[in-house]
Amino acid sequence: MKKDFKNMSKAELVAKRDELKKKYMDLRFQKVIGHLDNPVQIRTMRRQIACLNTLIHQQNAAESEK
Fold first, then answer.
1. What is the pLDDT along the chain (66 residues), one digit of tens a residue?
2. CA 60 to CA 65: how far, in whole Å?
């Protein structure tokens, strides 16, 4: 998954992060209601969002160096 993210542009990374955040919120709501099929999805999704945030931050840092 990380390898897929590294080839993306900054705009694509931001769009993917926003999409994953929406899905993460849905999973949290399902957990509260009690209809969550796979609770490990929450952890995986949170880690993917963190990875995207890191890559976005790295690209911002690289742009500011130039």
1. 667 888 889 999 999 999 999 999 999 999 999 888 898 999 999 999 999 999 999 999 998 887
2. 9
